[in-house]
Design goal:
Radius of gyration: 26 Å
Structural class: alpha+beta
Order of helices and strands: EEHHEEEEEHEHEEEEEEHEEHE
Largest sheet: 10 strands, mixed
Oligomer: single chain
Shape: elongated
Strand content: 25-35%
Number of strands: 17
Length: about 350
């Protein structure tokens, strides 16, 4: 039973507060209540849950530890602290990270093409595409909401496919619902053509080969994917471009778009990506992240039908290593273009 609020209302009294250290410009709500006799001796976090039942207990415990709860005007940080009847509690309700995920953030974007229906961005390595646990801000979605506010009305702000956080390169994003719908259908029909540049450990046995192996969640390590007969069909064409110093430069063409597809397929052939620790790679030539870049993207414009073929140069962290391999090593296949 929650005690009566300090006003005469039967429900908690909302109040706005500019909590110290809070990054948002929006004012925060503070609820104030007195501990009643039925709550005497209860844990603080249990009483706070009764004050703000729309939040999870774990989130409210975090607010207590973060100094957002006071008893009789004194900040307390122990969720297990026992309360006494008559004490006055104040709880500043900082929203959960998830509830704030779909907010516009003016983040830098490299846009290589834009019109009324879509844009193509060259995503930087390190940028997460869509908010999720551990990355509720600073994502491509947040940047799109700031650049194109109307995208708030679109599914996932117009995002129709993804790149891993540490993979750089081209992504197409719809700006209207008809464009988003058409792009999703084109991707499903494998009419959006994607080529990647990769630097791997080792040298392939053949100059050109195809990995046709289904991919599913690794049953032993849930953060990994694996080549599994029970997984979803996946196909990657691979071309060897050059090798030097135990490393090789490859061009990969996707026929499907499974999670971690290129990373899994190359690792399954003993060719893990440089920097890709999850699949057996190691840093080399100054590369600390997975050495994978979405370099070429080709598709029919979803509204006009006009053919679009776009390229993105290797970012600085990969370009130097790539040049050293291509210039110093043996090579057989010149760089081609999308067909």
């Amino acid at each position: 039973m929650v005690g009566q609020a300090e006003s005469d209302a039967a429900s908690p009294t909302p109040e706005v507060s500019d909590a110290a250290g809070e990054a948002d410009d929006e004012p925060l709500e503070t609820r104030r209540e007195s501990v009643d006799e039925a709550q005497h001796g209860e844990r603080l976090d249990k009483v706070v849950v009764a004050i703000a039942p729309e939040f999870s207990r774990s989130h409210l415990q975090g607010l207590i530890r973060g100094g957002q709860v006071s008893i009789d005007g004194v900040v307390v940080t122990g969720p297990a602290q026992r309360v006494r009847a008559g004490q006055r509690l104040a709880v500043t309700l900082v929203p959960t990270e998830e509830s704030r995920a779909y907010r516009a953030e003016a983040l830098p974007l490299i846009v290589v093409h834009e019109d009324d229906d879509l844009l193509v961005v060259d995503k930087a390595a390190g940028m997460v595409v869509h908010p999720a646990a551990g990355n509720w801000s600073g994502t491509l979605l947040n940047a799109l909401l700031a650049r194109h506010p109307a995208s708030a009305a679109l599914p996932r702000a117009g995002i129709v496919h993804r790149l891993d956080k540490d993979t750089s390169g081209l992504m197409v994003v719809g700006k209207t619902l008809p464009a988003v719908t058409a792009l999703v259908r084109a991707i499903a029909a494998r009419e959006v053509h994607r080529r990647y540049l990769a630097i791997v450990h080792g040298r392939p046995a053949a100059n050109a080969f195809t990995v046709d192996a289904a991919i599913g969640r690794d049953p032993l390590t849930r953060t990994r994917m694996a080549a599994l007969a029970s997984g979803k069909p996946a196909r990657t064409d691979v071309e060897w471009l050059a090798s030097a110093g135990g490393l090789s430069a490859l061009r990969c063409t996707l026929h499907t778009g499974r999670t971690h597809q290129i990373r899994v397929h190359l690792a399954s052939r003993g060719l893990p990506l440089v920097g890709d620790r999850l699949y057996g790679g190691r840093p080399a030539l100054g590369i600390e992240r997975q050495a994978l870049h979405a370099a070429e993207l080709a598709f029919a414009h979803p509204i006009s039908g006009r053919a679009l073929a776009l390229r993105a140069a290797l970012p600085a962290d990969l370009a130097d290593a790539w040049q050293r391999i291509v210039q110093d090593g043996a090579k057989v296949i010149p760089r081609g273009s999308l067909q």
